[in-house]
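Batch job 17 of 40 flagged for manual review because the log was empty.
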Amino acid sequence: MRRPDTARDRPVRSDDLVDEASTARATIDERGIVTGWNEGARKLLGHPDSAVVGRPASRLLADGAATDLPGPLEPLTRWSGDLTLRHRDGRPLRVALLAHHRRTAGGGAEWLLVSPLDRTGPTAADDELVRAAFTQGPCTMAVFDARLLVRWVNTYMEGVVGFDQAQVRGLHVSDVVPDTRGAEIERMMRLVLDTGLPQYLSLPPEHGRAAWSILLAPVLGDGGRVLGAVLSGHDVTARYEAQRRLARLNEASVRIGSTLDIVRTAQELTDVAAPEFADFAVVDVLPEIHPGGAEPPPGPVPGTVVLRRIAGQSALDGKPDMVIAVGDLAVYPEHSPAAECLAAGRGVLVAVTAETIAQWERDDPARAATMREFGFHSTIAVPLLARGTTLGVAAFARHRRPEPFEADDLLLAEEITARAAVCIDNAHRYTRQREAALTLQRSLLPQALPPHPAVQAAGRYLPAGSRAGVGGDWFDVIPLSSARVALVVGDVVGHGFQASAAMGRLRTAVRTLADVELPPDELLTHLDDLVNRLSAETEGEPVADAARAGDVGATCLYAVYNPVSRRCTLARAGHPPPVLTRPDGSAEYLDLPSGPPLGLGSLPFESREVELAEGSLLSLYTNGLIQAPDRDVDEAVGALRTVLSRPAESLEDLCDAVLTTLVPGRPADDVALLVARTRALDASQVATWDLPAEPAVVARARRYATDQLVAWGLDEAVFTTELVVSELVTNAIRHAQAPVQLRLIHDRDLICEVSDGSNTAPRLRRARVFDEGGRGLLLVAQLARRWGTRHGPTGKTIWAEQALPDPAG
């Protein structure tokens, strides 16, 4: 047992460390009253503390001593000088004082006055003290004469250079340190001798040596003559390495995560690490971490793990020290650093020894052989963790540089990897959402454009390659009655699931409105109402981006082409105008009325009708094709017109040429492109008769139709057509008004149309047993493949399509 009164158990007091009686000390408060008086003050002036403390300090001044004070003391924080005080025996005593104005523990202020009692000059004992202090000083020191020869070094310097004073005395620095460092120190020391001014030098660590901060100062003799120089150096390796770690962290924060691409983000991590921090760095992830992959597992991953390598970097050209190629899977046993860090959920630092290599050799001989060949001696493995889930492992190794990893290196690796893990997780989540949105987008787009007698069409959809995600661009080709066709291209504001879902609703609405046979301007008006309703519905819904809540705007271009009249009616809502390429190759942008984008409401839309020669090319597109951050819009508009004026083998080739020219890389916004080459029906394929509004004309109409079908060689369709014509003409004469017109169109199908001057729409109904009428439209619906009604400015048209046998069959 230890005695309780040993020196180790006694509390440390200030007078155990400092001889309080060797210095006179006194304290005076703001009122000038003495509040403290030590033994040294008693020795100096002879007054005991009982005679001084609590009394005015002015009583200690000799006559006339106040004139030695510097005036008002309030603005001063410290003062020094000589002051004449009165000794207890009455004699004046000149005293050197140093005064400090300081705060007290209670929040007040006071003056601390100190004065040395021993004012003797230098002694032999001082010389011994100074010599010992120089020799044993805590920093490297050396003295050089005017010839730059070593005259004296201290013990610390002897340890740094590896020689004692007797061995280096009389040598130059370049003789003791025969490399670039020694030459640089010698050059700076010559500047000290030439200028008489101190010089500073920083030496970074190299080849495993320490970093130094060096001061070279002149040694001056009488008259300011330079006698030599003194070198003082401090080992700043720890500070230098700390600065380098901060620089690497800053570099990592800038370079890692520049994109939302998993592989590129992982490669940025390895590029930051090697070769500055490690000689070799790789990133291996769980198999789930890939485009469209599943959610990674939460928490640590124990036991043997299977990982896929997605990035690697080496200090050696060609990465000969990489055993597993990028993209390959590898099995890591549970005792490997990768598996250990995944099981522990934290980084591990492993010193590679012969025993560890022998252990790995049993599981992976190729890896063990590579580690032995290149001399791997230190590794760090850090798990990629984000949001409580495990993504993979980042591994770092050294084999070229001799110094092993230390605990601070592990902290740095964990910090860099943590930042990269967040970026990789963001990239993985973004990729999953983007793939899902892209799948939804493509499922809503037409999988293949249907063949149509009016146009030959081709289309392309190109998703955005930016962080914005998949947008709401779409195109469609919609068959209409009487061999007509509708072409539509639209663009929903925003990106992601919301934009894709809104696009799907708008595309469905366009198809529904097209079936109602609305003209383009009216169709856009109804579509505008729908967009306003969608915006109102989404105002209260939570979305990932609050700025997009309630904002479901869109642009649209809608065109209807009639191959019989070769006329096309178009209207646009805030959408870029289409390009018309005529059969001679000339291309121009159609000047259409510029309607407002959908969703503004209460603003009209206007249509324009143009006549198209057979073989004309109509190109519709979204603004992603011509707008990009790094490209001038006018140049893109000109380039689009140029490429559309060039001949192409097919419309598919033309689409490829357009995208190659205007979107050589991944677009910043979604791109939808639809090109359609027009066809025209020959006059021989259309037969038209104006009929008087009288009952006797029904038989004549049947005869007209029969004769025309025989002329067309459609004898098999005569019976059905006679019934359809009879019913439609009868209804027009009985329930409508003049003028009445019958038209037959022969293309892939046989189309029968009856027009009248009434806007009353026919109604399909089931007749009762004893009703004399009411069965006409029901009969037409049973005989025709499709039938319907479309309204015009002066009446309506009832049409019915009959499928014809395939001529090739």
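Reviewer: the log was empty due to a logging misconfiguration, but the result itself is present. The two ends are 115 Å apart (CA to CA). Unflagging and moving on to job 18.
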